[in-house]
Each structure stands twice: as structure tokens, then as C-alpha cells.
Amino acid sequence: ETFEVLIRLAENYTSTLFCNAYRNMAAEAAVHVQEFFTDVGLFLFGTDASTEEFVNRFFDTLFPVVYNHLINPGLTDISVEYAECLRAARRDIRPFGNIPKKAIGQVGRSLLPSRAFLQALNLGVEVINTTDHLPFSRECSRALLRMQYCPHCQGLTLSKPCLGYCLNIIRGCLADLADVDLHWQGYIQALEEFSGALSGVHSIEHVLLNFHSLVHDALVQARINGPEVSEQVNKICGPPVRKPKQSPGCSFDQNKDNQVLKMFSRDSEQTLTNRRKEFVRHLRPYRAFYGGLADQLCANELAAADGLPCWNGGDLVRSYTHRVVGSGIKAQSANPEVKVKGTDPVISQIIDKLKHVIQV
After folding, report:
1. What is the DSSP string of 52-108?
2. Cα distance between residue 143 and residue 107, in whole Å
3. Residue 180: inside a domain
4. Among 212, 205, 266, which Cα is nearest to 33's?
5. Which residue from 155, 237, 313, 330 has the fewest beta carbons nearer than 10 Å?
6. Please, how many CA atoms are within 13 Å of residue 273, restricted to the half-sphere of its CB?
7. CA neighbours within 13 Å on the CB side: how many for 85?
8. Is residue 131 part of a domain?
């Protein structure tokens, strides 16, 4: 949602530029501005598109409007066919100088890591939801039942399992999750790196909220290059073919989105950067969440305190005497309490996806 509002705000700034400084072409330009920022949003949220192509398309479609109103204005508008010729010739004529190339570089450098960051966030949600709803095996369910409720059959309703006994069962039940741990740590580190890459002049906030400045520079360049551009246009497209004038004035309602956008201001890029950094900072304490989950559950909630009698699966004892295995699937071959099979295919898929993010 934050990215969606950012895109709307950047579109608002760019449309406002036309309304304030180039009012006669504002209504026509607004269509192309909206198309451009729609492309930005589609790219950010995963559509397979080229940033170079949609930036070029924006300047291609803007050129006929600029030519009609700024470079070679007339009492009538240019025809649709003539506008199409201008659009097709824009990259050869280069009316905006090197501004489109500059825009392509800035937009590409900001949107690619931003899209990767968003995709990584979505993967994080998928990992949490998947692991949260992972079903226990039958062996695990039986072991948990024996650990938690079998003492009740002997009237030991207040007893708790021995720490080692608890660890063997919970580590066995959560063996798949423990194997996620290393990749989860790498994932959080990758998020930190993505966040760092999104800061400064290449951040999506800085680039999008200042895109209107690039457009302004492009229009200034077109005005300066006007005579030369007109000469080239005449060679390629011939003299202007015009039709009755239909261009309305500025129809952009600058107040329309005030309710949604009032939370943003010119320091929005700083606000969004801080939000992103704050989010990553909150994630750091959970780097080892999956690897330490079994230990936390047993030590903090399930197991008896040191020195107290505890349940070992068959009786109330002073201490648990069986070997305590480590975490992860491989360590479970020696687990005396739970038989653990291979890695769950769902977990394998999650690990593969995390590896992909880490390698980006």
C-alpha cells in the first residue's frame, strides 16, 4: 500500500507540473503520465516488463503533445496520423536531448531493487504462513501426546517433561523448521542489503518523487531545441497536418487525492526510508527464530525447571538419561523419542525460494 500511495503521489507531482507550467497541454499529457505510472506499478508488483521500454514509451507519446503545444503551436491540433509519425520518430529526432536516457538509468536503478525487495517481503510472508500451518507427522503427534498427557494417566497432572526429553521431541517435530534456519538468516541479511541499496539518490522514493523534475528538464530541452526539432520533423513527417482544435485546459484535480496523500509531504522519501529501516531492524532479533524455536519452547514453557522431578516418557525421574540430539533433519537419526523421515517437500520448496532471494 505504501508503494501504491508513493506512485500516486509521484503521478500527482508530475501532473501538477503540467497544470502549473504547461496548462494548455496538461489534459493530454495527464493521460500519458497516468500510463507511465501505471507501468511503474505493474513493474513493481511483478509484471514482466522492461523499464527502458516503458520510459521510452512515455517520452514517445509525450513528444506529439509537446510538439503541438510547445515547439510548433498552431490554432489547430495536429492530426492523429501526424502525431503517430512524431511518436515513431522521437528516438531519432531526440527532442528531449539526453533526458530520456537519464530517466531510463534512474528508473531502472531504483525499480529493480525495489521490486526485488517487494518480492522478498512477499516470500517472507509465504515462509511464515507455510511454516505456521505445517502439519505434524503421526510420529510427532504421538510423541507430543506421550509427553504432555500420559503423566495425567498416572495422576501426575502437575508434572512437566524433563528438558532433555522435551528437546528430543520438539527438535524431532520441528526438524524441518530447523533446516530453514540458515536460509532464513541469509534471507534477513538479504533484506538488509536490499534496504541499503534502496537508500539515497537511487531510492525509489527519490527517483519517483523527483520524476517531475526530469520531465520539466525534458520540456525545457525541447523548447531550446525547437527550431532544430521542427526542421527534422519536416524532413521525416512533412509539414504539420492539422485538425480542429480540441485540446481542453487542465482538468487535473489537485485536491482529489488529498485525503489519501495528506500523510505524505516533500519529505516522504525520508519517511519511507525510515519505515523500511525500522522494519528490517525489527526483523533482526528473529534471525535465528527457526533454529532456536524448539529450545525456546522447552526452556521457557514446556519443560520442568532444573532440579525438579520431571517426566521422561515413562515415569517421574530426577533427570533424563537418554542422549539429547541436535537440531535439523540429519541429527534426528539418533533421536530416541521420535522417528523423523526426510525433509517435507513443502519445506524443500521454501528453502529453494529463500536461496533464490539470497543469491539475487
Report:
1. HHHHHHHHHHHHHHHIIIIIS--SSEEPHHHHHHHHHHHHHH-TTTTHHHHHHHHHH
2. 55
3. yes
4. 212
5. 155
6. 16
7. 16
8. no
Give the structural domain span for 223: 2-115+200-283
* pTM for this model (two decimals): 0.77
With 0-12 / 13-18 / 19 or more C-beta atoms within 10 angstroms meaning exposed / middle / buried, residue 329 is middle
Asked whether residue 147 carries a pLDDT value surpassing 70, the answer given is yes
Q: 129, exposed or middle or buried, with CB in 10 Å at 0-12, 13-18, 19+?
A: exposed
Averaged confidence pLDDT in the chain: 87
Q: Could you tell me the sign of the dihedral formed by the alpha carbons of 304, 306, 312, 317, in that order?
A: negative
* CA atoms of 60 and 87, how far apart (whole Å): 5
126 part of a folded domain: no
pLDDT band at 324 (very low <50, low <70, confident <90, very high): very high
Q: Pick from 230, 250, 283: which residue ends a domain?
A: 283
- Give the tens place of pLDDT for each residue, 261-288: 444 454 555 567 778 888 888 888 989 8
DSSP 297-360: HIIIIISPPTTS-EE-SSSEESS--SPPP-SSTGGGGG-SS----S--HHHHHHHHHHHHHHH-
The count of domains in the chain is 2
Collapsed DSSP state (helix, strand, coil) of residue 250:
coil
Please compute, for residue 153, the number of CA atoms within 13 A of its CA located in the half-sphere on the CB side: 10
- Residue ending a domain, among 283, 299, 332, is 283
Are 89 and 150 contained in the same domain?
A: no
Residue at grid coordinates 527457526 = 290
User: Whole-angstrom Cα distance, residue 178 to residue 88?
Assistant: 57
